[in-house]
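[step 3/7] fold_predict: job queued, chain A
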Amino acid sequence: MSLSQITLSLSRAAAEHHEQVINPWWVGLIAIGILLGMLFALVAFGGGREHS
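[step 4/7] structure written:
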């Protein structure tokens, strides 16, 4: 069985069960929030230090 056949059978099985899919916009917003938080933490931690 090829990879494309496996993915098609899995997608059909998921469609038949009517599983709730996570909204990609929410995933993107959460990812952006985490990355921006890490960026601000990096700037706050390194702020005021001399360059070596």
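[step 5/7] annotate
Helices lie at 3-17, 24-46.
The first helix runs from residue 3 to 17.
exit 0
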